[in-house]
Amino acid sequence: MYFAFHKPLSPCRQQNILLSPFDYSANQDQGFPSTSILIHNLLVLILKKKGNWDIISICLGLKVWKLDMGLCLAKSNNDADDDEPHLEFAGGNVHLITTKERWDQKLSEARRDDKIVLANFSATWCGPCRQIAPFYNELSESYPSLMFLLIDVDELSDFSASWAIKATPTFFFLRDGQQLDKLVGANKPELQKKITAIADSLPPSDE
């Protein structure tokens, strides 16, 4: 199920679908409808689209969360600065990618060593990215047969756009630079499942 975060009286922008009507002033004295709750002083609306509950809009600094998986669609004005350190993001055996040249170098190394690349397109201001970062770092140590990369979508915005990144975190599984699989959102069980499946499909190491 998807939720849209609304702040009363703040402007909303639509996400390619029509918003169900909601009049804040008309509901102020009557209480919120059964399809909304309050979380940290924010009005959380679950709006209806064609009979099904679905995500509808972005408010509060153009930021939306998919709560069952965890992802960010855009940066909020209240989020951390872009130049915040990546220390907690690039731990373990995770390689931080800050240039296109570094990316090409790592993919070349992966081809040479016959490794699958797992590329995490992330952002320091993204809450779900922060939450899954320690888990991603642990996985990098548990699966040495894979190469784990971290790409900051703000530092490499043009490069990230070339991969059509619509939300963070987004994970790509690559062999010889070609996409094998993809996962959008901080879904730990699904990420673990995909990594395990790919690792199990690899031939045994000679070491």
Radius of gyration, CA atoms, in whole angstroms: 20 Å
Distance between the termini: 45 Å
CATH architecture of the largest domain, please? 3-Layer(aba) Sandwich
Which regions contain 5 or more consecutive residues with pLDDT less than 50? 1-69, 77-85
- Helical amount among residues, as a percent range? 25-40%
The strand order across the widest sheet is 8-10-9-11-12
Write the CATH homologous superfamily of the largest domain: Glutaredoxin
Q: Tell me, briefly, the overall form.
A: globular
Mean pLDDT across every amino acid position: 70
Keywords: Disulfide bond, Electron transport, Redox-active center, Transport
Domain Thioredoxin: 74-200
Organism: Salix viminalis (Common osier)
Protein name: Thioredoxin domain-containing protein
